[in-house]
Design a protein that fits this description.
Helix 3 packs parallel to helix 4. The protein contains 4 helices and 6 strands. The protein has one domain. Helix content is 30%, strand content 13%.
């Protein structure tokens, strides 16, 4: 998703060779007046920036989710989101603990117009950015917890087996 050195859609090999259109989505941007926010930002100011990133960057940027959903539909292919997640990285351009992002991704997946066939939350703390919502795997000795407690609670609320019923 987003700006690339080469427009990904120009690499399309042809409908006969493709089963899914896939795009990774992370809550990060370098757009002005978004992330990082000032140290003095209030909760309301941070929420406004989260909403701005969702609307202006993640959905409506030139190669945002709206573009890729339309591209997939135009080629009669389902959309896949093989990686998505929150982001806390050294560069400072991630949205951190952002339950609004979780809610909006859930709504995007559930909207039949987007034809999302599959999605997978990238639930790890990687060297290039932290994304982990889960506390780790029991019995492995790796119980890191999460730096995104509000988002983890929203994820469990929306994506748990009981929420699907």
């Amino acid at each position: 998703m987003g700006d690339q050195d080469f427009p990904a859609e120009q690499a399309w090999p042809g409908d006969e060779y493709v089963d899914f259109v896939g795009v990774d989505v992370y809550d990060e941007t370098w757009s002005a007046d978004t992330y990082p926010w000032p140290a003095t930002a209030t909760a309301a100011e941070i929420e406004a920036r989260h909403r701005k990133v969702w609307t202006e960057w993640i959905v409506n940027s030139p190669r945002g989710l709206a573009f890729w959903a339309k591209f997939a539909a135009d080629h009669r292919k389902p959309l896949g989101i093989p990686e998505w997640g929150l982001n806390h990285a050294d560069h400072g351009h991630g949205g951190l603990d952002n339950p609004y992002f979780i809610e909006q991704m859930h709504a995007f997946f559930r909207d039949p117009a987007n034809r999302v066939a599959f999605q997978c939350y990238f639930d790890v703390n990687a060297p290039e950015g932290h994304h982990q919502l889960s506390p780790g795997v029991s019995g492995t000795g790796k119980q890191e917890g999460t730096e995104f407690p509000k988002s983890a609670a929203k994820f469990r609320e929306l994506f748990s087996a009981t929420a699907a019923k």
